[in-house]
Amino acid sequence: MKYYSYVITITLILFLFGFALAEDGKKWKDEAQLAYVKTGGNTEVTLLSAKNLLTYQATEEIKLDWSALARFAETEVDGKTDKSAERYATELHLEYAITERFYTAAHGGWLRDKFAGIDDQYYFGPSVGYKFLIGPKHFLKAEAGVDYVTEDYTDNTDDDYMRGRAFGEYAFALTEKTRFSQSLEYLHDFDNSDNYNVNSETALITALSDKLSLKTSYVINYDNEPVPKDLDDTDTTLAVTIVVNF
Question: Cis peptide leading into 136, omega within 30 of 0?
Answer without folding.
Answer: yes
